Amino acid sequence: MPAAGFVVANAFYPNQQELVMMMVYLALAQGINVIYGFTGYLPFGYVGFFGAGAYGLALSVLYLHVPAGVGLLFAVLAAVAVAALLFPLLRLEGVYFAIASLAAAEALYEVISNPSLAAVTKGPYGINLVSAYNANASFVAAVALVAVSMGIVVYLRTSRLGLALRAIRSDAVSAEFAGINVVQRRTVAWLLSAAMAGAAGGTFAWYTSTFYPGAVFDSSISIFAIVFALFGGVGTTWGPALGAVVLFGVYNAVGISQPQYFQLIYGVLIVLLVLFLPGGLGSLVQRLAPRWRRLRRTPGRGPEALPGVGGPDG
Amino acid sequence: MAEPLLLVSDLTKNFGRFCALDGVGLDLGAGEVVGLVGPNGSGKTTLINVVSGLYPPTRGTVTLAGRPVHGGAPHTVVRSGMNRTFQIAKPLGGLTVEENLRLAGASAGHRPLPEGDLLQLVGLSGLQGRVAGSLNASQQKRLDLARALATGPRVLLVDELGAGLSPAELDQAAGILRQLAEAGMALLVVEHLMGFLAKVTRAVVVLNAGRQIFRGDLDQAVQDPEVVRVFLGG
């Protein structure tokens, strides 16, 4: 459904690049949802997988001469390989994990942008994929990215894997004694989340076609994805998607024309959210849904039923 | 005699230079209930933690129906047919009661009771939809027990089920444990409440400072000079 929304929006909205970026962020926010919302690991260095994906696509197109669509597979592979290399991080918890993942992303950035590796990675001089540029095809890839990332979250919300991950987030020891292979399930979530960021990075690289390493390893990408996911509400299907659309929309409305206000508006939004809606926008829907149902169940009483709606229980 | 269901031999666990378990041996047959008693810090919970796979042993073996299970992660122990409860209940707080049991039942080693029967057994009928974290302490203990039972264990390690329960709940809990034993389950019951334990079994093992100092009937235990010295000092 959100994927279809973007297709329709593309027909009416002139700024396609903005739409693609919104879709990329939607996928990243859902990737954060998978690893944080379902397992409780908050990766500040999530951008590392995004960058790995961007370079996975770029290098496979440049050196293996594969079509960019196939390059997306290499994007996913590159991110998954980085995630596999970082398995030991999962032994850490909470803030230690967050910081270690940030350090790992920075390390990856330093390696890729290193001038000594310019022969392979083009080092700090950036990537040029203009020969593979195809706005329509990469837009379609972004739409597919949204559909797949939504599909993954829907699957986790309804499958035994998702239930197992929520159990692990609740209490890893008890989850073991419910018969769950905690290490294995966590690993699956970690790889899945990395793959989503890798695909997002590859899509970004394809659509943008020229970029510097600093652009795809920019730590503000992690922060944006995390904020979007938290704003909408992690652990839900729609929260992170909603967060990405709303906040990225706000960013584009005010962030680019008036960057000084944008910081302020973002700050205020996040403070309000933490104070009044710690569960994210999604939790608002959950809170209001029962009241809405109650409202509809008493149609005959009309407006006079309304005062009771905001009663003591709400 | 047939091979025991659970056989623990020479089990030793060191934490750094501290020896929490020192060569403990134990065996349990189907339907057998053994109480594990001892003063605080004698190694009762450590024994359960090592036997259930939460900690690897420093030395010694644990076999379940002839198959070694020591050194494996808890989920492998669970899948081979042994589970445990916790002194302070640890239900999966973010999940509903029903989800707790469904998840545990999905990885059952042996055919468990249906969820409805389990809930009825532990007295949680009608609470399937409740989020486990919102249950009270006694209900969380029941859920902890039900979660363990949902995995269909043949051996159940019960860590202080009685602690914090009311007298009526204690009777009920003792009844549940007797019922499980009658159905053929082997139970190792760590307990501080001797009155409660006596309602479940006469057979006890007494630990002190990580060593077994007595094994036999509860009545003889209270007359054993070393047991008396350990519990009453002097």
Textual characterization of the structure:
The complex is a heterodimer of chains A (314) and B (234). With 314 residues, chain A is an all-alpha fold. Chain A is 74% helix and 1% strand. Chain A has one domain: Orthogonal Bundle (ABC transporter involved in vitamin B12 uptake, BtuC), CATH 1.10.3470. Chain A has a two-stranded antiparallel sheet. In chain A, helix 7 packs antiparallel against helix 10 (182-208) and helix 12 (219-232) crosses helix 13 (239-255). Chain A is globular. In chain B, the strands form two sheets. Chain B has a six-stranded mixed beta sheet, sandwiched between helices. In chain B, strand 1 and strand 2 form a beta hairpin. The N and C termini of chain B lie far apart (40 Å). Chain B contains nine helices and ten strands. Chain B has two domains: 1-81 and 155-234, P-loop containing nucleotide triphosphate hydrolases (Rossmann fold, 3-Layer(aba) Sandwich), CATH 3.40.50; 87-153, no CATH class. The model of chain B has no long low-confidence stretch (mean pLDDT 90).
